[in-house]
Amino acid sequence: MRFKKFDIIEEIRNRNGFTIKKSAETVETLLEIVKSTLASGEDVLISGFGKFCVKEKKERKGRNPETGESMMLRPRKVVTFRCSGKLRHLINSG
Question: What is the 3-state secondary structure (H, E, C) of the chain?
């Protein structure tokens, strides 16, 4: 199942009785906080849910899948997610 941002907004509206506008503002605010924190290089830990981490990837050898040509991939940052023990237990107990 695919869960889109609008689905989250609808779920918040249904559970809390907020208006669509208030629910959308809440979701947008949360996502903006997470994005700006990660962009600054800091990790985001949400207790009982998990941790979003910014990892540095070093330069490495890669291959162009279209041509098969070898190339060097630039160093970059990626975001990873590690779920909490509570979430892992919930997922595995179902």
Answer: CCCCHHHHHHHHHHHHCCCHHHHHHHHHHHHHHHHHHHHCCCCEEECCCEEEEEEEECCEEEECCCCCCEEEECCEEEEEEEECHHHHHHHHHC
